[in-house]
Amino acid sequence: MSMARAIVNLELKDLNLKLLGEQGVILPLLEMLSGSIESKELSLSSLVKLAKLHANKGIIAASGGVPLVLDLMFFCRMRPFITIKCCEILEKLASDDDGIDFLVDGKGNQLELENIITNLLALTQGPNSAHYRKPALRALLGICKFETGLVKKAVLAANGISLILPILDDSDSEIRETAINILFLFSQHEPQGLVEYLFSPRRLQALVGFLENDDNDDVQMAAAGLLANLPKSERELTMELIDLGGLDAILSILKNGTMEAKENALSALFRFTDPTNIESQHDLVKRGLYPLLVNFLNTGSVTAKARAAAFIGDLSMSTPKLTAVSKSTGCTRWWCFRPSKVPLCSAHGSVCSVSSTFCLLEANALPGLIRLLHGEVHATAYEAIQTLSTLVLEDFPQRGARVLHESNAMRPLLEILNWGTDSLKSEAIGLLEKVFVSKEMVEYYGTRARLSLLGLTGITVYGDGHLRRKAARVLSLLERYSKSSSSAFSGVQE
């Protein structure tokens, strides 16, 4: 016991803790867990300090210490102090991205993880839970962060969301912050229970407070992720969030947050703008969203680039409606008396701007979108193709086709037929089908496209019959125009 007391009382550096583990102090400490209350308390306090180090975690696990700690924590609650220290050990074992690696018995066999999660959830609800709620929640977060399957089981089997939600009202800010991180993980599987709980101004204000917490990156990331997981059909909830400053907080994260927080914020942003609601899109554009999205195309992570491209696509889908409105509002409007030197948009045939028509050309988004075609990354290329497709309008496909040609988008688009997955190739073929309505484009790119498309329709190709049928349709377009006149794009060779 004197050894354990010394470990508890002395200020030991990591090197000293590592040496103690190597010299064999852990096994005697584990043996002390079968002794008196004082022995247990000293042993557990020592193990908390030793479990800071990865190497010592391995020794504790290999020595059969984890089942002993779990038994004391869940089934032998003699004193709150003992339960607290057990929770702290479990928290340390699951920390630093170790997750469930050390949750094994002495032979290295994985322990029953679902039971551990269920018991941790129950531990946060007991009459004395205030004493050990913080380490229990941190241990739960460490385990669930890397085990999505376990999270789903815990949510469904133990009704996890309903157990964690009330903890958002805890007076301890650290406990609230840990709870929001856990709820973010849980919300990926059972978001509806969150909606019902959040329908009160006080609780929504608390969520906005988490979004505004610039001092804790993890909390911001979790709050934005939780918001992104809530059903977007809950329009009343969305309007309440806007009134409470939630949209401004999301935009602030897009400017200043970590990349993980920005990714979740981009996903959450979709709930604030229904693609069929142009007014909500106008509101976001007025708040300065478009330059942020364009910047993500160039400097964001793969996930951020894909989500930014998708959002630009939603805005671009509204552009034809907005240009049509500007042309049809009568000669009392500026359109009828526009200066002759004001150029018309090459894609939309109208006077476009970022603020009035959400034009992606005016926003200078086109170069970034085309770069996404070059990267041989499925997620970003897929969203880029869908967004570029919004430029090739059904009524005037030649204009959009010319824009793609002049911006050098066609070659990387055709290359996707060689390296892309079936779903990505299908998107590329869909855009080519729109582009090759233009005879000029067929003359210009037909030969190269034909070679790739024939490879997708050949009898030796197995897999997606839908893909082969789409490729065959585009080939028929190429054949139809194969004898057409020379390209209107003189002076440029294929």
Description:
This protein has helices at 2-9, 14-22, 26-31, 37-50, 54-62, 65-74, 80-94, 113-123, 129-144, 148-158, 160-164, 173-187, 192-198, 201-211, 217-229, 235-243, 246-256, 259-269, 278-286, 289-299, 302-328, 354-357, 366-374, 378-389, 397-406, 410-419, 422-435, 439-457, 465-480. The protein is an all-alpha fold. The chain starts with a helix and ends in a 14-residue tail after the last helix.
Structural class: mainly alpha
Number of strands: 0
Strand content: under 5%
| First-last Cα distance | 84 Å
Largest sheet: none
- Return Rg in Å: 30 Å
Overall mean pLDDT stands at: 87
The number of helical segments is 29
Could you name the ranges where pLDDT drops below 50 across 5 or more consecutive residues?
330-335, 484-494
Q: Tell me the helix content.
A: 55-70%
Q: Overall 3D geometry? A: elongated
Q: Which H/E pattern describes the elements?
A: HHHHHHHHHHHHHHHHHHHHHHHHHHHHH
